[in-house]
Amino acid sequence: MTAGRAAIVGAGPAGSLLAILLARRGHRVDVYDLRPDPRDGKGDGEGRSINLGLSARGIRALRRVGLWETLRDRLVPMRGRVVHRPDGSAVFQAYGTDPAQILYSVDRDELTTLLVERAAAHEGVRHVFGVRCTGLDRENAGLTLADTVTGQARGVRADFVVGADGAFSAVRAAMQRGLPTDHRQDFLEWGYKELTIPAAPGGGPRVPLEALHVWPGDGALIVAHPNVDASLTATLFLPRTGVPGAPGFDDLTGGRDAVRFLGRVFPGFADLVPDLAAQYAAGPVGTLVTIRTSRWRHAGRVVLVGDAAHAVYPFYGQGMNAALEDCLVLDDCLARHPGDRAAAFGAYQRLRRPHTDILADLSERNFADLRDGTRSPLRLARRQADLALNRIFPTLWRPLYTMVSHTDMPYGEALRRARHQDRVLRWSGAALAAGVALAAVKLTSARRTSP
């Protein structure tokens, strides 16, 4: 199979990374996106770009295309998370026992721009911005594109099409139309708003910068990522519709109401955002969705990557990392099946889908952990036990979070090992309890028979 023409719909991190990888294989690549060119510095203009946490999987992807060292100056290391308690105190929780086990906060627009620039540096890559995908001919790898300003439509042809156009993918919908497909779309009852914690008047950060900051509360959650300019991008999560005593976004319609509520639930947070009322009133409410779908490709003509194949809630920090890892796996499958693109796409789906389904479950579970577990003494004790055992047996015992975030171990394998460790811990606890009980019985018997 000679290198052909690829049409990628979506110029986000996954689409742009895949454009680079395909261009390296000799493909001519056309990348289409409905947003403006990020190199113009306008961003997506939607106010819905949760900052990204780069972990081992994303770093490995960037290393493969030689971008990791270039990006490092634009990142803020997060060595752990700072949990802000309701009494106003804060506690630091390291991500792991190894100082190298850290995450990196990156602005989504910064990362996208860098990837687009690197892709455009390849002679065979062409970008077209401001066009919307309105149709797909899956049998012939044809696309119908409409200009977002004029509405004028045109058709394009390629050898294969990649859907990298997000959770509500037009490519996925058209590819699956009329075919037997299992598809599940779960919306979280919570939404989110982005708020900015600006740098202090002197230019420094208002809170320690090299950490993810978490404010867990009753019926609310705030997570803040640091930025290189000493500001933090905070994401406020609330139910869309609240209950008495715990309002949601539908109830907090004005900025002043929000300030009073946040001041009550998160003492001290309002002091970090001088224009909190104005920011709250101006920011849109974002939607959180999980996508599980059984059909990721059609023959050798269409394939999905990233959120188009497996959108997940953002609470494990793996959505973007998993999307970049998709590109590496797909690239490897194309290398293993150089004469059969259909076989390559099929192998890619078989390798990735079981693990991204598990990631969706982990991300949903971690929402409860961030919201409630960071305040739970029992959860904290279990976390400390995991870390202590990891220090003693660094190669035999690794916390689930470590395996997911600081290795490229498949998600399913990480969960399997974590469950085995849970069983060992339960057996050990049961054995210890039984031993203590037996010793107590023997001691009591000895006392009764002693003269």
TrEMBL record:
SUPFAM superfamilies: FAD/NAD(P)-binding domain. Its cofactor is FAD. The keyword Manganese does not apply. Residues 7-179, 293-354 form the FAD-binding domain. It comes from the Bacteria. Pfam families: FAD_binding_3. Keywords: FAD, Flavoprotein, Monooxygenase, NADP, Oxidoreductase. The keyword Oxidoreductase applies. This is NAD(P)/FAD-dependent oxidoreductase. It comes from Streptosporangium longisporum.
